[in-house]
């Protein structure tokens, strides 16, 4: 379980990014966080792995306290939390496999990783992760030669190779076209269902949030202003969260068609 109790974050310079957040996220939940730019979504997600320190309040992840954790404790916590970014954050000039193996770095001595001497069991884990997101045939391709959708799937595989308990995704589909965005969201949903990894995703697009989130958390000016199911989150709720009428920019506008994965990924590359 992830538990926020009275969490506030004030950045140097005085911006109140989070104000007195109380939240409980049960193990295995798929949570989507929505809100206008600047509402505090990224800050909320980044407190969970200690990337952003709390100004006040307390935060526990799987019974471990994040605030006040030592560097060593934070390293151990981060080993159990996978993270996916909008810009994929792959090392472009090396192979897909090497990128995924980086998910094993936390349990690999530096000298071994520098020499590329990963254990056989780590390589097996990396291949399993690539299989799970259906890009295993790209294992020896340079990451720079993949399409955006494929790169995001590799970054999901890298996170999976960590064998995480929690998966954080900060705007994971913001750089992808609508069909590919659906493919990636569906991957995240499938992984959440199959492996029971607690998943927290920041999303800009409200239709995607409704389609994939078991639970939607709406943020406005650093506070939680909605917490409910996708069904409960209707247009009126979203207008409350956004404080304005919805526009075409707020939806990705693509119905969840039965996508032929290979075609989409090929067309993109
Ligand atoms: N490192 C930082 N230093 C100072 N202020 C910051 C920092 N990071 C974020 N902020 C500010 O904190 C507030 C919340 O930002 P945050 O990135 O969490 O919002 P967001 O909802 O994720 O928005 P976006 O989708 O644009 O990233 C904003 O006003 C932002 O400008």
UniProtKB/TrEMBL annotation:
It holds the Pfam family ABC_tran. It comes from the Bacteria. Gene3D superfamilies: P-loop containing nucleotide triphosphate hydrolases (3.40.50.300). GO terms for cellular component: membrane. The keyword Thylakoid does not apply. Residues 2-246 form the ABC transporter domain. Keywords: ATP-binding, Cell membrane, Membrane, Nucleotide-binding, Translocase, Transport. InterPro entries: AAA+_ATPase (IPR003593), ABC_transporter-like_ATP-bd (IPR003439), ABC_transporter-like_CS (IPR017871), ABC_transpr_PhnC (IPR012693), MetN_ABC_transporter-like (IPR050086), P-loop_NTPase (IPR027417). One of its GO terms (molecular function) is ATP hydrolysis activity. This is Phosphonate ABC transporter ATP-binding protein. It comes from Natronosporangium hydrolyticum. The gene is phnC.
């Amino acid at each position: 379980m992830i538990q926020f109790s009275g969490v506030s974050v004030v950045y140097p310079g005085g911006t109140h990014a989070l104000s007195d957040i109380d939240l409980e996220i049960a193990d295995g939940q798929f949570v989507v966080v929505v809100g206008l730019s600047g509402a505090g979504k990224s800050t909320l997600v980044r407190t969970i792995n200690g990337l952003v320190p709390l100004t006040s309040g307390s935060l526990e992840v799987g019974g471990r306290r994040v605030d006040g954790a030592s560097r060593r404790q934070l390293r151990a916590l981060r080993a159990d939390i996978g993270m996916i970014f909008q810009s994929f954050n792959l090392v472009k000039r090396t192979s897909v496999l090497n990128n995924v193996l980086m998910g094993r770095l936390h349990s690999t001595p530096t000298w071994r990783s520098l020499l590329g001497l990963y254990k056989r069991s780590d390589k097996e884990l990396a291949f399993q992760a690539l299989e799970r997101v259906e890009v295993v045939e790209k294992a020896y391709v340079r990451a720079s030669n993949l399409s955006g959708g494929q790169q995001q799937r590799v970054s999901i595989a890298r996170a999976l190779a960590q064998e995480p308990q929690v998966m954080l995704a900060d705007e994971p589909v913001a750089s992808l076209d609508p069909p590919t965005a659906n493919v990636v969201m569906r991957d995240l949903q499938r992984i959440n269902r199959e492996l029971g990894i607690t998943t927290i995703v920041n999303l800009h697009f409200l239709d995607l949030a409704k389609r994939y989130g078991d639970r939607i958390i709406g943020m406005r000016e650093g506070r939680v202003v909605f917490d409910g199911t996708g069904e409960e989150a209707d247009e009126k709720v979203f207008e409350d969260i956004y404080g304005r009428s919805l526009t075409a920019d707020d939806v990705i506008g693509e119905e969840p068609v039965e996508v032929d994965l290979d075609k989409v990924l090929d067309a993109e590359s």
